C-alpha cells in the first residue's frame, strides 16, 4: 500500500470540492489532491441538464454540465491533481485518508482535509411507504440519471411523491418526454421546492400539486399498477374517507436528501442533528482540527451558487490551516430560535462578520430576522420567507462583545 503526505485532500469532486480546491490553490497551497468516486469530475451537476445554475456566480443562466465544466476547466488549467474512480474508505482523527483507487490502496497523510461528499436521496425504506414491492419505483435523482445520462425512459404514467426541487424538475422532464404525469403529492401544506420550480415545472405544464396528501399504498406485482393517496391531518396521518387510487406504472420519490457523513461519523466528527452535517465554526472547520466541510455534506442547498461560495470559504481556511495561520477563537455559540430550523455556522468569534446560512420553518411574509444575545443585537427585514429557499445574511457590524450565545429568530415585522 502506497503511503504519502499531501498538504490538502479534498474528498469529493463535485461543485463543492472543485471550488474548495481552487480557493486553496489561490491561497498558495500547491500540493492538493481531489478524490472522486465517479468516472469524472462534476458530481451531480452532470445529470442536471436544465438551466438556472450560475446566476449568482457567473451572472448568467447555465445548465448543470456547463457550470461544472467551467470549474473542471479551471482545475485542469491550475494543475491540481485529482483521482477519479476512487473511493475514500476511511478518514481517521489524525487526518489519514485511506483511498481505494485503480492503482490500488493509498494511505494519505493530509495536512488538512475538506469534506465535500455531497448528499444522497431518501429512499422508500427511509419513509416506510406501505404496499407491494414491484418494479417502477425510483428516487427522482435516479430517474434523472436514467433519462438524461443513459437515455432510458423510466415510465409512461407517473406519480411523484414529494415536491422537492428534483421531483418538480423531473415532473417537467417526463412531461417533455411524453409521459403522463398524474401529479405531485406533498405531505406538507406548502411545496418543499423553490417557488420558481413550482411555476415553471407544474403550473406551466398543468400538472396537479396535491398539498397535504401522502401515498398510502402501492399495488402491483411485476410492475406498479396503481398508487393510493389520501389527505393527511396535522400529524401527517392519512384521513379516512379521503383515499383515492391513481393508475400508473411509475412512482418517483422526491422526499428529501441526506448528507453523506459516514466518513465524518467514523472519524468522530460531531454532527448537527438539525442538518445531518458536521457542526462547523465560521472557518468551516469541524470539531476535528484541520478537517473542514462544505456543500451538501454540510447542509442541503437549493442553489449550487451558494455551494460554491461556502466551498471557497472552506478551501481558503483549509489553506490557512496548512500554512499555520492563526484565527480568533470561535467561542460564540450560534443557535436557531423560534421560526428558524437551523443556522450554519454554529460557532463564531467575537470579531466575526461571518455570513450565516439559515432556513425557516414555515413560509410567510413581512418577517424579520432578529439577532439576540442577552438583548436584541440587530434585525433584518424580509419581505418573504420560504423553507425551500436558503437565506444568506452577513452579520456585518453587529457588536458581539460579551456575547456567548447568539440566537437567530424569525419574527413578524
Fill in the keyword field for this structure.
single chain, 413 residues, alpha/beta, FAD/NAD(P)-binding domain, Immunoglobulin-like, 3 domains, seven-stranded mixed beta sheet, five-stranded parallel beta sheet, 8 helices, 27 strands, globular
Query: So what's the overall shape?
Result: globular
Fraction of helical residues: 10-25%
The first-to-last residue Cα distance is: 61 Å
Please outline the major beta sheet.
Answer: 7 strands, mixed
Q: Look at the structure and give the mean pLDDT.
A: 95
CATH architecture descriptor of the largest domain: 3-Layer(bba) Sandwich
Helix/strand-derived class? alpha/beta
CATH homologous superfamily (4th level) name of the largest domain = FAD/NAD(P)-binding domain
Strand content: 25-35%
**What radius of gyration results from the CA coordinates?**
22 Å
| Low-pLDDT stretches | none
SS elements, strand count: 27
Number of spatially distinct domains: 3
Q: How many helix segments? A: 8
CATH topology call of the largest domain: FAD/NAD(P)-binding domain
The CATH class of the largest domain, by name, is Alpha Beta
Note the topology.
Blueprint: E1 2-11, H1 15-26, E2 32-35, E3 51-53, E4 62-63, H2 64-78, E5 81-83, E6 87-91, E7 96-101, E8 104-115, E9 119-121, H3 124-127, E10 137-139, H4 140-150, E11 157-161, H5 165-176, E12 180-186, H6 195-202, E13 209-211, E14 213-219, E15 226-231, E16 244-247, E17 250-253, E18 257-259, H7 262-266, E19 291-293, H8 304-322, E20 332-336, E21 340-344, E22 347-348, E23 355-360, E24 364-372, E25 376-385, E26 391-394, E27 405-412
Parallel strand pairs: 1-2, 1-8, 2-5, 8-19, 10-17, 11-12, 11-17, 12-13, 20-27
Antiparallel strand pairs: 3-4, 6-7, 7-8, 9-18, 14-15, 15-16, 20-22, 21-23, 23-26, 24-25, 24-27
Helix pairs in contact: 1-2, 1-8, 4-5, 5-6
